[in-house]
Amino acid sequence: MVRIENLDFSYKKNKPILKEITLNFAKGRIHGLLGKNGVGKTTLMHLIAGLQFPVNGTIMVEENIPSKRNVNFLQDLFFLNEDMPETEFTIDKFEKYNSVFYPSFSHSDFVDYLTEFEISDTKQKISKLSFGTRKKVYIAFGLACNAKLTLLDEPTNGLDIPSKSSFRKIMQKAMTDEKCVIISTHQARDLQNLLDNIVILDETSLMLDATTEEITEKLWFGIEEKVSTERILYQEDTIAGLATVRENHGGEESNLDVELLFNAAFSNRKLFNELFNNK
Amino acid sequence: MFSAKRVKNLIVKDFVSSSKIVLTITVGLIFLELLQLVVPYLRYSSYSHLDVVWRSGLFNVSALWVVTVGIIPFTEYSKKYNRASAILLPATQEEKFAANFIMSFVILPILILSSVAIGVGLSWVVNTFRFESYSFSLSSDYFTNIDNWLSSLFFVSIFFFGSIFFKKNRLIRTIAGFAIYGFLLLAIVITIMYFKQQSGEMKDPTNNIDIFLVSSRIYCICSALFFIVLSYFRLREERS
């Protein structure tokens, strides 16, 4: 769906943000884009959306070049920025005047998603809503657009606990084999059961691009009682014991913990790169 | 590829989202015309007949047209958090430009002219009640003078460009930019005229008034086209 080849990007000369990034985002999957602050997650999303133009390299979204801002491409794209747009519209007016631009927009989906988020009064002015509620309105609208490519930058930021759970439900409901969703987040635990593929950016380059199955094939996540000397990537003291990420020797089953994975990636880079073939 | 329907949808969306400011301008202008045509004649209340020749209203139209074009078009691009959604709204760059162009060069002047007409109509009603005989005539000098329209077009095109070029305080920055530009232009013209006069090429400037008039008209048209085309390219390069 999204093919990125040898992408270089910088806002200022001699200060690269992204360097020689080659990456694919497949259809039918929800991709998690992780990385420390300032590594270029949002910039990468802006480049995929065509909000910024690459310095070198190419980005293709199906047959479209995002920087051309072709109308067919835009009709199949929804991008929710972390900083949401300001509008004086009420929810129903916002839907009325914006949905006409999206041929696959579904009013019933929009109502369903709002209901899931417990928003029933669509006569409310969006600007008067709380940050979290505004975010819910935009998420509901974005998913109701049924765009092939949805980019969400920190979608769960500002959502309360029940809303995070509603968000996961809605995402699962909205997902089809034809869609590709890329979520940039620091709230890794909120979304870990939702993600099919994980991409970790480090400084200017790519540290990991793997499916959750590939990750749990190679790494074991769990609680151990004592400090192990095996090929450990990361250990952290918890009340239950030592939360551990180690190499998965015998194909043991374990549940992916995205936060531990992220810490493992940065605390033992050498072994991490060895395991994931320097991807 | 170009869709008139999408242009219409863009205009409607922009118009409704700017409805507060549009309403303020409309009501304000109606009120201004009423004030201009009713208040000055309050002191003639003992008169039974009054003849009024109205001139200033059309200047209001031009001035307000320039100011509103500095505020209304490309509003979403000027707001930091709205820029991305404006760029990614599914319409071609040409359609987005056309929508803003139509709003600035067709809808706004019509709206402003209509407000003036309503204001004048209301004041006519008020004055007709006050005076036994009230005659109102529209001075067509301003309206029929092509130079007034060309200079309006020139100013509007600059403010149209300023509204996409500047992000913060668009109107103030455009006025400041235009003041500097105007000052430099005037300095160049005066310098050229001075040296031409010194060299004897231009003995009496009043003899060259026709050339000056024609060249200023050509300048207005070319500048307006230049700034309109420049606005289009600025829109194409817009990033978030």
Describe this structure in words.
Chain A has a six-stranded mixed β-sheet with strand order 5-6-7-3-8-9, with helices on both faces. In chain A, strands 2-1-4 form a three-stranded antiparallel β-sheet, covered by helices on one side. Chain A has 279 residues and is an alpha/beta fold. Chain A has helices at 41-49, 71-75, 91-99, 107-116, 131-144, 161-174, 188-191, 212-218, 258-267, 269-275, and strands at 2-12, 15-25, 29-35, 56-61, 77-80, 149-153, 180-184, 197-202, 205-211, 219-224, 232-238, 241-247. Chain A folds into two domains: 2-203, P-loop containing nucleotide triphosphate hydrolases (Rossmann fold), CATH 3.40.50; 210-275, no CATH class. Helix content of chain A is 32%, strand content 29%. Chain A is built from ten helices and twelve strands. The radius of gyration of chain B is 22 Å and the shape is flat. Chain B has one domain. In chain B, α3 (57-71) runs antiparallel to α6. With 240 residues, chain B is mainly α. Chain B has helices at residues 4-17, 19-38, 57-71, 75-78, 83-88, 93-130, 141-144, 146-165, 170-198, 209-236; strands at residues 49-54, 133-138. Chain B has ten helices and two strands; from the N terminus they run ααβααααβαααα. Chain B has a two-stranded parallel ribbon. The model of chain B has no long low-confidence stretch (mean pLDDT 84). The A-B interface holds A 46, 49-53, 69-71, 74-75, 77, 79, 81, 83-89, 93, 97-98, 100-102 and B 1, 3, 6, 9, 12-13, 16-17, 20, 76, 79-82, 84-85, 87-93, 95, 239-240.
The SSE string of chain B, one letter per element, is HHEHHHHEHHHH
**CATH uppermost class of the largest domain in chain A:** Alpha Beta
How many structural domains in the coordinates of chain B? 1
| Count of alpha and pi helical runs of chain B | 10
**CATH homology superfamily of the largest domain in chain A:** P-loop containing nucleotide triphosphate hydrolases
The CATH architecture category of the largest domain in chain A equals: 3-Layer(aba) Sandwich
